[in-house]
Specification:
60s Ribosomal Protein L30, Chain: A; five-stranded mixed β-sheet; homodimer; 10 helices; alpha+beta; 12 strands; seven-stranded mixed β-sheet; Phosphoribosyl-aminoimidazole Synthetase, Chain A, domain 2
């Protein structure tokens, strides 16, 4: 008997193996203060391409990816371990660059690299980050707490990291056979930064805490808004309506999307890697949340489970939101 | 500037990147109760070969490898996360087998799988395990606590896992072009078990605790006795003498070593993967330790740093113990 993993999808697979999909980080303990533990694996050729991903940025991004999971529980990240699978093509200097980037992100986020493991890799560079954090029981935010009429909020703009990836891939193809290649990124620096150097939104979590706002549910947008919103709907037993004209999409994202004949809304919904936070707050918090000054946008609201999740276009039409499959490339 | 990683070795590399090599697990906190966090990465083609490593055993072994690091700090393992890089050749059933083995080890060791991550892999199967544990500050055992005249103890026998690997490799070569292969493992089941299903020595840690014995230093033997003893010497600023005729080597290990023309002492010193514990206790503990009934052998004693680390042969000759390099295959 052989069941292909593609038939289950990533979440189906996790559910089958683990019993449930869970939150962005595992919750440990039962007292007033809970521990949070998250882990992420990034593999060369799947999650990053070293032909255009500078090692220093990769180190920075890995920490962003790991710490974002703790932030998405409304928690504080404390310690990080990094396990590396090292291929022979990498030099000591490459790895020092990687650590320089990782340390920079750790400094900015107030976390410490406490340990790790190295192993040889016969294939590509492999990185696994685990992050230990903590959160007061009264503040913990899971995917399952969204309630009808809650406002759906996201931080900053969507789709830029995805377009940044397309830009890098295009330049890689264009320059594959050119000597001394000079990539043309002018005007799109923002998209590159969003792909190569995404920032974990500790500023948002700090701002919420300063105003004593505890979201009812939260998730790190790593797989794309559509997929991650469905995670909240599924875990919370609810539906959702998000409004197309409310989706924050940067000017540069629109511009490159047009140039590459990509629908910017599709990029915003399904392009992953944004590492922004998607969360819900009670309806009465509207003003309080938008006044925080950390770029929070309200894009819709939570509805009854029976209504499903849909994107509402400016003319009032509803387009059902569907998850994308798990792509075993 | 390009420095090859091989010129530094694994420990040199870690020292350069991290500032120091550290213990088997990172220690977090400063109170009476400390948290322990360890991480290990295992990659197909380097750490295991799926042509002969059953998925269920691999799941079991990964948990052994991870939990051993916590035990080596004299700690109690509590929670585990598993990150998997999944290649398209694996089926859902393969991964279920892997989890069945991992859960079995977790049950035996009293730990819980709390989370994880899955990503596609274009190369081979990649596994990263992180383990969270705890230990009382008064009981924590590091690599750095060995003192002159301490006894050097190890649990169970050495070199068997390494010979088990050789046996599997031999059968793989022998059967590569045979239809319906029937591997000949008769008489060597013990070696296979040591390679395919090593057990984390929670029984030893429990037995030490029951008698209120706190080792002065400890390490998990994963890289081989020689390399791991040197880690203790280096961290503790001491030398060591271990006695060749005290090294516990199983009958099956001797038998296969002879058949394969491998020196069984070299296998015991440098063959890794044993996942037994190497620790030191004060001289006065000799009787107490050997009476515990968990297979602890005293193989030597700690000496002054200036004397270095050496293996003493039955005729009294001393052979300096040297570390093996980091092999980027």
């Amino acid at each position: 008997m052989r069941t292909e993993i593609a038939t289950l999808g990533e979440f189906g697979l996790i559910k089958r193996l683990m019993g449930s999909v869970g939150d962005d980080a595992a919750v440990i303990g039962t007292g007033k203060n809970l521990l949070l533990l998250s882990t992420d694996m990034l593999l060369e050729g799947v999650n990053f391409d070293l032909t255009y991903f500078p090692m220093q940025h990769l180190g920075y991004k890995v920490v962003t990816v790991g710490v974002s999971d703790i932030l998405a529980m409304n928690g504080t990240a404390g310690q990080v371990t990094l396990s590396l699978g090292i291929s022979a093509k990498l030099s000591v200097e490459d790895l020092e660059e990687f650590y320089t980037g990782a340390r920079k992100a750790c400094e900015e986020l107030g976390v410490e690299i406490v340990g790790g493991d190295t192993t040889a890799s016969v294939t590509g560079f492999a990185v696994c980050i685990s992050v230990l954090g903590s959160v007061a029981k009264s503040k913990i935010t899971r995917r399952s707490g969204a309630r009808q009429n809650d406002l759906i909020c996201i931080t900053r703009d969507l789709g830029a990291a995805y377009l940044g990836l397309h830009l890098l891939e295009r330049e890689k193809r264009a320059l594959a056979e050119v000597e001394n290649p000079q990539p043309r990124f002018s005007g799109y620096e923002y998209l590159l930064e969003r792909q190569l150097r995404p920032r974990a939104r500790k500023d948002v979590i700090d701002a919420l805490a300063a105003e004593n706002i505890v979201p009812t549910s939260m998730i790190d947008i790593s797989d794309g808004l559509a997929s991650d919103l469905l995670q909240i709907c599924h875990a919370s037993g609810c539906g959702a309506r998000i409004y197309l004209d409310r989706l924050p999409i940067a000017r540069e994202t629109y511009a490159l999307a047009e140039e590459l004949h990509i629908d910017p809304v599709v990029a915003a919904l399904n392009g992953g890697d944004d590492h922004e936070l998607l969360f819900t707050v009670p309806l009465g918090m509207q003003e309080k949340v938008t006044r925080l000054g950390v770029g929070i946008e309200i894009i819709g609201h939570i509805t009854a489970e029976s209504t499903g999740a849909a994107l509402v276009t400016p003319d009032g039409a509803e387009v059902a939101i569907k998850a994308q499959g798990f792509n075993l490339e």
